[in-house]
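User: Okay, second chain of the day. Same drill as before: sequence in, structure tokens out.
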Amino acid sequence: MTRNHLTQMAQKYMDYDMIALHTDVPELPEGRIRLLHAVLSHQPSAVTHKDLLAVVTSLVQMGLDIHDQVDNEAGASGGGIRGMRSRQLKVLAGDYFSGRFYNLLAQAGQIDMIRRMGDAICELNRVKVLFYSKMKQMKLNAEDYLRHGSEIKSGLFLSFTHLMSGLYERLWPEMIERFTRCELLVQELNRAEEHGASPHGWGVWHILQEGSEEDRRTIADDGADPNAKELLMSKYSVADKLVAQLLQTVGQLQQLIARLPSDKLAKELQLLIEPFLRRIGPMPAAGIKELG
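Assistant: Same drill. Structure tokens below.
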């Protein structure tokens, strides 16, 4: 299945004028969807429904991501009536995508899959409550931030583990967790290189954990000079540390892929890792040896 074909299949159910005009729809989780679709293509119990499962997973994940936008905006300035309407539309858009997911699976008679994905959504909501609670209470450390973030990105995809057999079933949970951790690290690296510092990015939690008392006060102060925060990101080598973690995680992911029974699948999944490798940039000899 080509990248464009998967995107077109999912987009068919996502194109809705009201949503497109009035909400910022998150990006399709293309990497995770292609990873899932590729692995399901090698599972006898799932190959018949692999396209359907890829589409409904796209819809559910998009719905969850849109609802997360509403949660993140709730604590920000309201924006008056315009802001309220924007949040209402995002809630409705998330519900719309979720509704299509139920409808498509029910039409295909995939009732067990509805239950399993519903259970996964409940577990994701539990993880999110724990994550946001820790964040609000300032009881989060940098590793917690990555761990919970990976759990949130990978949780829905774990609901397909039962469709896999043998070594695939054993490797899938760790493979999807490593893949989503790579996605999160790239996202955080992009944040770290922006002007200022994201209020809740990995770099902030790293400085709160490792920084001096004065630096911790500065990075936690919403009213602090963005230039001062940018200097702190540089002082604590946030971008370099994220690149090092991305290098390590990509290496772990490649080791998992090398254990797969299908060489054809391994080559296909290697293509999905290339954006992470490009984001790392030129690697030192030691890093190349580790990945090999």
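The chain has 14 helices and no strands.

User: Thanks, on to the next one.
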